[in-house]
Design a protein that fits this description.
The chain is mainly beta and about 425 residues long. The protein is built from six helices and 16 strands. It has a single domain, classed as Porin (Beta Barrel). About 10% of the residues lie in helices and about 50% in strands.
């Protein structure tokens, strides 16, 4: 039977999925020599986030899918998602609200073109129609979606609704990817799957200004180009993937030395003062992303990323160099195959230019204690256990230990206790 015939018999024509996720994070009081505008609150504090998403998909024609995902959001990250560059919950956006609000995070078309090879089953997913495609294929996605929906994925650490929660574990910390304050953007991506490798390329709109709710949708005004090469292989009979990513951002950005001079001259500069320093500049960076199965149920991952360290952070967070590694273990060995346990360690650092900026009282996207007299690397340890109550329903206990939050040896360490409820159909 040809792949086309198999596809026609097994493909879904439409699908409706849903999910809800509730997270709670709490930290006890911790030592802090001083506190600034973008600091983590040193007092004991707890915050929660909650979201409900409906994912509706329809097949437009052979290989083409249209998806729309209306969502209700509510809640806040700890200290309004401030104070830790490797923030503790990727379910917490940079926009918080005490009252639920509705938005449409994703609205896109995906076209798959078969290029031959073995026919493979495509399992239904929250934004994926079930069916088949050939091993060699082109996949084109256009519309509103997340850069990290396509790039920088990892089987063991990429889904804060199901696995790790920390920003610098589920994504590469120094990958300053194009996004609005919710982590989404407009753009297009092309993926070419062939034999043991995949090449990806994409172009995406950037924000009107760093860390903004609003995207600059003027064609070619502020944008990001992303490329990624992926190799699939077996090592001692176990599967693995290695991905190498590079990005170029063209946006209105200020250099860190310029911002430092401004803060030294004016302790509390206005938005117009900062805007006057922003000119169209290029920002570059890259990431290495590895996933490797060790034995059945046990996998290891590593993320290493690097930014240029000379311009202000644009969209993601205040990290110039990041290394994250960890293990993921499914519960089959103790009779709980749907459970998962994981542990990860993160070390994030900043460039000398960013250190001087924070020393001067500068405020980044997530960090800025008003001064930085005793800088050090931000170090995070995260461990979680996800317990399956029923198919599609899980509760998770999460613990994170953060040393030198905001790169500041004069604050912390802090322990963050987390709980998560997730259900999907």
């Amino acid at each position: 039977m040809s792949s086309t015939a198999a596809y026609a018999q097994t493909a879904e024509d439409y699908a409706l999925h849903g999910q809800t996720t509730l997270t709670e994070q709490y930290h006890p009081a911790f030592a802090a020599a001083y506190t600034g505008p973008n600091s983590l609150d040193p007092g004991s504090r707890g915050d929660e986030t909650w979201d409900v998403t409906i994912s509706a998909g329809a097949r437009l024609w052979h290989g083409a899918e249209l998806w729309v995902t209306p969502e209700v959001d509510q809640g806040f990250g700890l200290s309004d998602t401030l104070g830790i560059a490797a923030f503790s919950s990727a379910e917490a956006y940079k926009v918080g609200a005490s009252v639920p609000y509705v938005r449409i995070p994703r609205l896109f078309v995906r076209q798959t073109i078969d290029l031959g090879g073995a026919t493979q089953t495509v399992a239904p997913g929250q934004t994926q129609l079930g069916g088949t495609q050939t091993a060699n294929a082109l996949i084109f996605t256009i519309g509103k979606f997340g850069v990290t929906d396509v790039f920088d994925t990892n089987a063991y650490a990429h889904d804060p609704r199901n696995d790790f929660m920390n920003w610098a574990v589920v994504d590469s910390g120094a990958f300053d990817y194009a996004a609005d304050a919710w982590g989404l953007t407009y753009g297009a991506a092309l993926e070419w799957y062939q034999d043991w490798w995949t090449l990806r390329a994409g172009a995406f709109d950037g924000s009107v200004e760093p860390n903004s709710k609003f995207l600059d949708t003027r064609f070619g005004a502020q944008f990001q180009l992303v490329t990624e090469a992926e190799a699939r292989y077996d090592m001692f009979g176990e599967s693995g993937k290695i991905r190498l990513l590079g990005f170029q951002t063209r946006a209105l950005l200020a250099t860190l030395p310029e911002l430092t001079s401004l803060y030294e001259a004016t302790p509390d500069p206005s938005a117009s003062d900062i805007a006057a320093l922003r000119h169209l500049r290029n920002k570059f960076g890259g990431a290495l992303n590895i996933e490797q199965q060790i034995i059945t149920d046990l996998g290891v991952f590593l993320r290493a990323s690097l930014g240029d360290g000379r311009t202000e952070a644009y969209e993601f967070t205040d990290i110039d160099r990041s290394l994250a590694t960890g293990l993921s273990l499914a519960g089959g060995r103790w009779g709980r195959p749907a459970d998962t346990a994981g542990i990860a360690a993160i070390v994030d650092t900043i460039s000398g230019a960013r250190k001087k900026f924070l020393e001067s009282g500068g405020l980044g996207i997530l960090v800025g204690d008003g001064k930085l007299t005793n800088a050090g690397p931000e170090q995070v340890l995260e461990a979680y256990y996800s317990y399956s109550l029923h198919a599609g329903i899980e509760i998770t206990a999460d613990y994170q230990f953060v040393n030198n939050p905001g790169y500041n040896r004069d604050r912390g360490p802090v322990s963050i206790l987390g709980a998560r409820f997730h259900a999907q159909f």
